[in-house]
TrEMBL record:
Protein's name according to its UniProt entry: Holo-[acyl-carrier-protein] synthase
EC number(s) per entry: 2.7.8.7
Any single Pfam family the record assigns to this protein: ACPS
Cofactors required: Mg(2+)
Gene: acpS
MF (Gene Ontology): holo-[acyl-carrier-protein] synthase activity; magnesium ion binding
Family listed: Belongs to the P-Pant transferase superfamily. AcpS family.
Keyword Ligase: no
Organism of provenance: bacterium (Candidatus Ratteibacteria) CG01_land_8_20_14_3_00_40_19
Domain of life: Bacteria
UniProt domain 4'-phosphopantetheinyl transferase: residue ranges: 6-118
Keyword Acetylation: no
UniProt-annotated binding residues for Mg(2+): 8, 57
Length: 124
């Protein structure tokens, strides 16, 4: 049964400007070191950062109202399987909520030159 669904789109240039303006203060608040390492190894790191940002937003939108207010950005980590398929690696409140409610998150992300998009489905 679908518990929730969320989608988000990010303008890559806007994320790049925000990251350049606020530097590590922004990026280390939003992304884990694993995510930053992964993205900055890519030819176009901001496409990958934007996709991860969109994935985190999509996850928060898929949760019911008040529950997402207790989550911290870095408790929602986006990782990739060997096949390249993205998945959520949750920590803290997010992980305990998923376990308590019996929810499994599914993720798909994509990006082009200008935009990154992510869709999250929570299945119970």
């Amino acid at each position: 049964m679908i518990f929730g669904s969320g989608i988000d789109i990010v303008h890559i240039k806007k994320l790049k400007k925000t990251t350049e303006k606020w530097g590590e203060r922004f990026s280390h608040r939003i992304f884990t070191s694993r995510e930053l390492n992964y993205c900055y190894q890519k030819k176009s790191p901001f496409q990958h950062l934007a996709a991860r940002f969109a994935a985190k937003e999509a996850f928060l939108k898929a949760l019911e109202g008040e529950k997402n207010k207790e989550l911290k950005w870095k408790e929602i980590e986006i990782d990739n399987k060997e096949s390249g398929q993205p998945f959520y690696r949750l920590r803290g409140f997010g992980k305990s909520l998923m376990n308590k409610e019996g929810i499994k998150p599914f993720l798909t992300i994509s990006h082009s030159k200008d935009y990154a998009i992510a869709h999250c489905i929570l299945v119970k």
